[in-house]
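Q: Give me a backbone?
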Amino acid sequence: MEEKYRRKRPAGMTIVEAQSEAHKIAFYPMLFQAVRSLINFGVLEAVVERKKNGASLPELARLCSISDYAAALLLDIAVHADIMLLENGLYKPTKLGECLLEDKSVRANMDFMHDVCYQGAFYLEESFKSGKPEGLRVFGDWNTVYQGLSQLPPKAHESWFKFDNLYSDLAFEQAAKIVLAGSPALVYDIGGNTARFDLTILNADPDVKVRIFDLEQQLPKARQTLEKAGLMHRAELHPVNMLDSETQIPPGADAMWMSQFLDCFSPGEIMGILQKLAGAMGENTRLFILEPFIDKQNRAAALSLLNTSLYFTCIANGNSRMYHQCDMLEFLERAGLKLHKAHQGIGRFNYTLLECTKP
């Protein structure tokens, strides 16, 4: 059994440095909103565009149509947060500032946190106590966010899918080659979401067919994706709730696929899903699980995954999280499945693709 990864404590932190870091955490919510204002008002973009010569406060206030008061306060914050440099009255961006503006993953994270998580995060402590996504009440009266995705406010809906699709999409091409290496005739996609992975393998192999199993509310988006690409004739859509004890997965798949699906469930629920799939697997069926595991990431990425776990706590379902690889391997073993190979470093964001079989 793999030992769970433990991160080392920073060495040599003085009490003053510790206090400084503690104060940062205390004020992070306000800093987050201030940085969004820097971006939304166009201040950060204007500074980046003028990074060679720099830009003055009056110039930035005029260019961005904000008051001198707003410009002065936001620029002060930007300097002290190492987002900008102030030299001879002129502001220039740091690498951090450029990253905040130009990195698509950072922008997707910020939009997701603001549009989907920020208001609901007020109920995080309550969610930990109840085991339910208490923050979801800011959007509607559903048991999980997945039941209400199609009814989220437009901005929250857009940011949810932008966040959900960005990371896994960049792993699909590489993962598809591994799945198709065994020349499967029929692939089951469990929790197919918007069918973007199915689109990848259907385009890559003209002979493969797919069956998508997901909540009834989710399947219209999958259909829309496949019909737009002219590939619906090679796909079947099956409405299922994988947590329903009456749900059965029919046999016949050469490969089964799950992308960022199991992290949407508690350990007990994951066990039930894996056992259900194991019962439908044949002797030669391969089960592929694509996940970003905490213990296979760098420090910043691991912290992002842990914060995503808090979204699961207060918004998504109240009881799931991003997992360590060793946790998932234990679930597989207990469900009667065997790890054939762990494919590491999949895609830009270092996903892991677990390839599993029946013993």
